[in-house]
Amino acid sequence: MKLKLLSASLSMALLVGCGDQNTPAQTDNKTEVSKAEVSLTSGVIGANFDKAVRPQDDFYRFVNGTWLSNTEIPADRSNYGTFTALADKAQEDVRTIIEESASAKDLEKGSDAQKVGDLYNSVLDTAVLETLGVEPLKPYFAEIDAIKTKSDLAAYFALVSKRGSTVPFGMYVNNDAKDPSQYIVYMYQSGLSLPNKEYYFENNESSQSIRDAFVTHIETMFGLAGLANGQSAAKDIMALETAIASGHWNKEDSRNSVKTYNKHEIAKLNELAADFDWTAFFDATGISGETHIIVRQPSYLTAFNAVFNDTAIETWKTYLTWHLLTGNAGLMNAALDDENFKFFGSKLSGTPEQQPRWKRGVNAVNGLLGEVVGKVYVSKHFKPEAKARMMTMIENLREAYRQGILELDWMGEDTKKQALDKLAKFNPKIGYPDAWRDYSALVIEPGQLVKNYMSAREFNYNTQLGKLGKPIDKNEWFMT
To answer: Which of 79, 132, 309, 387 could bond 275 through an S-S bridge, CB–CB 3.0 to 4.6 Å?
Structure first.
């Protein structure tokens, strides 16, 4: 895989407007700010230009050539650019906040600070991870061993979906694309270890090298985890994933919003996959009272049904054991963690080195407890005044659009009315939510990294599930 340097000079310059906490807030269109109070820049950095390149020959090199020549990609990155640098700066700021909780003593159990501190420390405490080895996964391996029937298998698919494990199809809750006033469940193709179906079928040297390395990687991981029959397991897993991939839609069709909108009655999903026990599956999901679901790739479910029916239960159990192991390898001891990164980080993504442990700890807190640490972050780095200033700017833009629509001579009156209605419904969200998520039901324990991840994943799953049957929350926040 190639390492990439991304454009630096032609980045959006909105950050200029929100980065300076001391800039006076604009209160109306007539407000004037003197040059002495604030200095505005274009956001284009001339020093990054390569004047030896003619812009008409290679505009990208003309604008970014000097920056590309002088910038080294960090060893823990597969690419680098302006927004990567911005993310690094935010990560440093979040680290400071997190480590205040991580170093605190006698924190109240169940408090936000206790959850942040114990989650972060459970990532950093590699001595505990070495001592535990694969022990934290053994109760979950036992669940797989207990599977006896295809109905058990269907229920298990639903169970581990809550914990973030890969199974042949996934689900999420979102607004109904054709009725945004309602939440609905979406189902989508999944079940692969490699990024997409092309990796399993492209007939070239690079793809074959990845497939060969993948099989070797599975065998190695089974050995490191103390699991038997790694060589045969690797072959079975590769064969099963290839069969699953054969029914996958390609990337282009999966991105087509029209083709992927297929509303089905849940009670009639057996018309797509007759041999799968949908009752056992939905009983285990926790979904109740829903009558319809949007199936993004219906023909995949039909193809999956044949694979499901033709594959022995023991092979499915081997496959599920693999996904439990690989999905949590980054939470294990160094041997499993390093082997996991060697394949997925280096071989697939071209990243030379793992991120330092503190970055991985920050990523864990951001990913699992995002709005907990977010509350503290914005209080330090994005004051209400800055948010108000950005909202004023957005409303000025909205007004400019409104006036522009009214003045268009090529747009009819009915069309203008629809355009203005659409503009009025635009719901801007800047910086952070007005109401923060409640994490009180989530339990985080010291020194229990795998258990903490499982609990947090299930908590976030249940949070999404809890939207079903409720009015749309227009202030819902989708970012950490």
So the answer is: 309
